[in-house]
Amino acid sequence: MRLLTKAKDKKMAITLNAPLDMHLHLRDGDMLTTVAPLTANSFSGAIIMPNLVPPVTTKEELTAYKQRIKEASKSDGFTPYMTLFFKPTYTKEFLESIKDELTAIKLYPAGITTNSEGGLSGFDVEELAPTLNAMSELNIPLCVHGETNGFVMDREAEFVSIYEMLATNFPNLKIIMEHITTKESVEALDKFNNLYATITLHHLLITLDDVAGGMLQPHLFCKPIAKRPEDREALRRVALNGHPKVMFGSDSAPHPQHAKESCGCAAGVFTAPIALQVLTELFIEHSTIENLQAFISDNARKIYTNIIVPNKKVILEKCSYTVPDKYGTVVPMYANEMLAYTITDIEGVN
Ligand SMILES: [Zn+2]
């Protein structure tokens, strides 16, 4: 899992314009207070997942959560892009009334990951049509956690047929395949005009071997679970090449240390504070640094035509630093390890 850092002596500054995290968990309460500034500092905006307890399903909950995020993030240069937890009962009138506060709607199959018990238990086109047609008309993208309840390694590949059904029946709906982890999902991307994807940092780096091949690594345990080397290869191919339908979405998902280092480990990898530094290293190592801007911001701005993005320039330089062992109660990816790139300057409103 460790990045192979080849020594490059030339000091080179990398500038990222308006980085966006198109899939982020900020939680609520004390956890929100701890993690929100870590993203708000270096990103211009993020799509905020709605799987609180209870999930965000009303205008009141959504605007109140947005307000709590703004207060916790302590930054005017960061915009939280809010989402609702998908319900097939949302009417066009309701969506029209909330459209200005809302960027996307997130669909979870029931019980598939953290706090998704109230998710969808079936994919019946007729039942879904009123809400999905209204979303198409109002230009509200549908973000999907695409896994079935099948065998853990096959869940995402099995879900591709549902993506195809949705893409075919709702051709004007922008469908984002969230945190894809398999070559099957990568293949589906190019088959349908209206399918897009987010890819996490950790799925570009690890395979199942890094999670469970040796001693179990609870801080790398996430849903969808990391897959095979050829899957990671497929993800790297599109991300590193700046494929226009692919966006960075960290799926950074903080849990307190005791919930990760326990019998019944919670799913989620916490990458928010190290994402830009490690992505820079990864893209430089693959000689594709010129494509990082597309992956980290430009593609998302073209796909999500309903967002306004604050100006921000993040400067990174080759200068090593050690990742803290914890942020509050949360252990980050690469805790206590040395990273090769550091954020040396941030320009813009803060
Ligand atoms: Zn997520």
Structure, described:
With 350 residues, the chain is α/β, with parallel strands linked by helices. The protein contains 12 helices and 11 strands. An 8-stranded parallel sheet has the order 2-3-4-5-6-7-8-9. A 3-stranded antiparallel sheet has the order 1-10-11, with helices on one face. Strand 3 (45-48), helix 2 and strand 4 (79-85) form a beta-alpha-beta unit. Helix 1 (29-40) packs across helix 2 and helix 5 (155-169) runs parallel beside helix 6 (183-189).
Brief write-up:
The chain is of the alpha/beta class.
Topology of this protein?
Elements: E1 13-17, E2 20-24, H1 29-40, E3 45-48, H2 59-73, E4 79-85, H3 92-98, E5 104-107, H4 125-137, E6 142-144, H5 155-169, E7 175-177, H6 183-189, E8 195-199, H7 201-205, H8 208-212, H9 229-240, E9 246-248, H10 257-260, H11 275-285, H12 292-303, E10 312-322, E11 338-348
Parallel strand pairs: 2-3, 3-4, 4-5, 5-6, 6-7, 7-8, 8-9
Antiparallel strand pairs: 1-10, 10-11
This protein binds zinc ion.
